Amino acid sequence: MKETLIGKDTKEIGTYLTEFNEPAYKAKQISKWIYQKNVRNFEDMTDLSKDLRAKLLENTQVGKNEVSLKTASNDRTIKYLIKLEDNSTVECVNIFQPDHQTACLSTQVGCNVKCPFCATGLSGFKRNLSVDEILDQYMLMQKESDDRISQIVFMGMGEPMLNYDNTMRSIEILNKEIGIGMRHITISTSGIIKNIRRLMEEKLQLNLAISLHSANSELRNRLVTINKQNPVYELLRLAKEYANVTKRRITFEYVMLKGINDRDQDIDELLTKLNGIHCHINLIPHNPIYSAEKLDATPMSRIKEFQEELAAKGFPVTVRMSRGSSTSSACGQLSVISGKN
Ligand code: SAH
Ligand code: SF4
To answer: Are 10 and 45 contacting, i.e. CB atoms less than 8 angstroms apart?
Structure first.
């Protein structure tokens, strides 16, 4: 099988070159073609000798995944369905904003956490993505975009903190080879304590978003099943420590579900339990999904009220504008079998 170069950094490409008697320094030219110029065809790498291009062509490929479907929303957000080598598919989204573009990347095929309001969770879990499969989502989307995609959010399919090593290695390459600033990268997690602690110890300047959805233990057990092994009181204690150690403000994401976590008592519980944590709350309108369990979205009027009450007590709180919902590419609408929702 041919070796894949996406997923390797310059040093690793250099080591690989020495395996077929080429000097390691040429790796710099190759990684520039791949990561800076987004060239996938060795023939087009014109500053490499013909001989090296031929050797590369014979033994390697730049990327092995392909775009199998591309759907544009009416807000210019584009959802991509990427076909992987084993014929699994994974979704990623190029979110359009007037002044920049953001790549929303997946880290797993499906998700084991199984939050009842999320299409990915309901579609089951197949496997972790490899480093090249995570990175290639960015490379393939960037190739099709006229403007640079300058921000990354790990908010696609899967739980990044349950695929820790590959997610972190992808971030390293996005940062060092592609040049995306750490402050432009956000990891969203349902709250896997052990790996948030590991992340804290790495002291990176990236953004951490924790999908809280409730500060109440019992309710959170139902909304985010991993709460049983990762209890919310411990998670919040760690969030406080994380913000202190990294000097970065944590974002708490909160999907608003009618009559479930949008009550006055939920506001009170948030106020008490988030007190003293350097944080920001992002209220997320629930995007409809196909689900047996009836979960309704909180109406926008109530979301605004909820926001105002938290803000009145001094919490920075925003309401997320949903993008891409006309093509089911908004948060939580990405499922293993495309078109299921
Ligand atoms: N597994 C990670 C990252 C992927 S989910 C996590 O849970 O954080 C990214 C975000 O989408 C999470 O905040 C999640 O709660 C939210 N989400 C999931 N389903 C949604 C839905 N149907 N509507 C709106 N947001 C949803
Ligand atoms: Fe997994 Fe995140 Fe969806 Fe929960 S919200 S099922 S953790 S992808």
So the answer is: no
